[in-house]
Write a structure and sequence with these properties.
Elements: E1 3-11, H1 15-21, E2 36-39, H2 50-64, E3 80-84, E4 92-99
Antiparallel strand pairs: 1-2, 1-4, 3-4
């Protein structure tokens, strides 16, 4: 199995949607831009947000198995994907890519 690096690239915040639909919460996310994790054997890395992991798990597992080229050439690097977490108010985009030791 290949190691897969996960990088938190960017967070988008939809304040208008938050004001309209969300109950106020003090702390929603611990992820920071630039933060990185390494998935070994397609498993969830320690410290990874569980909600974000649920969004990317199938892609990480596929890349770890040597699969890729999702959606027939979607990514320039066929051994990668750009996946967003499922928070509809403040989604984070994660770049996931196979890395070699």
């Amino acid at each position: 199995m290949k190691k897969v690096q996960i990088t938190a690239v960017r967070q988008t915040v939809y304040r208008d949607l938050m004001e309209k639909y969300e109950n106020p919460i003090e702390h929603a996310c611990d992820v920071t831009e630039g933060e990185q994790w390494i998935s070994v054997d397609g498993r969830c890395p320690a410290g990874m947000c569980q909600s974000a992991w649920c969004s990317m798990r199938e892609f990480v597992e596929a890349l770890a198995r040597g699969e890729g080229n999702f959606y027939d050439g979607w990514m320039r690097n066929p051994a990668s994907a750009m996946i967003s977490c499922n928070d509809g108010f403040r989604p984070f985009s994660f770049y996931i890519e196979v890395i070699e030791d």
